[in-house]
Amino acid sequence: MQQPTLYRRFKIGLLASLLLVLSSSSWAQIYPSKAIRMVVPWPPGTPADVTGRIVAEKMSTSLGQPIVVDNKPGAAGTIGMADALRQPADGYTLYLFSSSTVVAPLLFPTQSINFNQLEPIGHMAWSYNVLVAPVTSALKGPSDIVQAAKGKPGSLSFASGGNGTPAHLAGELFKQQTGTVTTHVPYNQFGLAIGDLIADRTNFMFLTASAAIPQINGGKLKPMAVTGAKRLPALKDVPTMAEQGFGDFVLRSFDGMMVKAGTPKEVVERLNSELNKALNLPDVRERLAALALEPEPMSGAQFGQVIATETDKWQRIGRAAQIKVD
Q1: Which residue of 14, 141, 146, 209 has the fewest CB atoms within a 10 Å radius of its CB?
Q2: Do residue 46 and residue 111 come from a single domain?
């Protein structure tokens, strides 16, 4: 009697294993069978939103299903994150993850924010900031800001799209490295920050290049420096911070895609393949380059390492600045 019982158990185990293999294989074959939603935790028209839409358009064509962009802004990206984490781990909800979200644990220390609940699909593009000022400003470069700020501490102000954003943290890093005192003015709407800077209500801003370029080309803002290690092709006449004596001031931000942890491996790999395929298309690279965005396809594991490294860097700046929600 014992042998048949063991035999039945063996058959049941073998059948379960075969079903698991077939299930994973069939899932990979039929995915996607319906529309995919991409949660963008920033308002429409913001740099991360623009990047996500450019890439999603091409991925939709290749996948044969639409990727519908759903903007869920607020709380440094954590409102959108919470929405994505409430959905099944099936690959039908993507989350756009960026540098602006990595400081969320500092801004909301009482909340349980765990990035390990998300799994990296892949990196999209690097972005850089441009130090800009109103065209009527007497400031011509970062050295002028230092001189004016040290001459009258607290007299200059810099704008950002909110606490913890790259523009805010770039301004804080500038203060830390130069020993100056300037006033941070956060805005809850990105467009208002730019508008008040143009109107000379604030003195300078480390504005994302994709948002700065139209204002520079339109003669509304004055470019003084870029935060990259080298000049940006779209702003080839604008020197880097390093070229102007600020050698340690090199900052870049990332944008990438994530899914809820536990999503089938085959689905994650399919999404990574389609993302990287889209990033390598000549017209996509051309559109991103026009916005001073630098695409860099990666594996999910490579993007995970970027997140770890960038989180450490941005949180160190944030802790030193003692950032908090106003």
Answers
A1: 14
A2: yes
CB 197 within 8 A of CB 282: no
Residue whose tokens read 């298309």: 281
* Side-chain half-sphere CA neighbours of 73 within 13 A: 13
- Give the chain's domain count: 2
Tell me which residue of 177, 172, 174 sits closest to 185, measured CA to CA. Answer: 172
Query: Residues 166, 208: contact at Cβ < 8 Å?
Result: yes
Token reading at 175:
């203060």
Report pTM.
0.87
User: Same domain, yes or no, for 226 and 298?
Assistant: no
| CATH number, residue 270 | 3.40.190.150
Residue from 310, 284, 303 nearest 50 by CA: 284
Q: Which domain holds residue 227?
A: 129-244
Residues 196 and 143 in one domain: yes
Q: Which residues of 71-109 are buried (b: 16+ CB within 10 A; e: fewer)?
A: bbbebbbbebbbbbbeeebbbbbbbbbbbbbbbbbbbbe
* 40 φ/ψ angles, rounded to the nearest 5 degrees: -110, 115
Residue 92 lies in a domain: yes
Show the tokens assigned to 176. 């830390």
* 158: in domain: yes
- Residues 103-130 have pLDDT tens digits of 999 999 999 999 999 999 999 999 999 9
Three-state DSSP state, 313: helix
Cα separation, 210 vs 46, in Å, equals 9
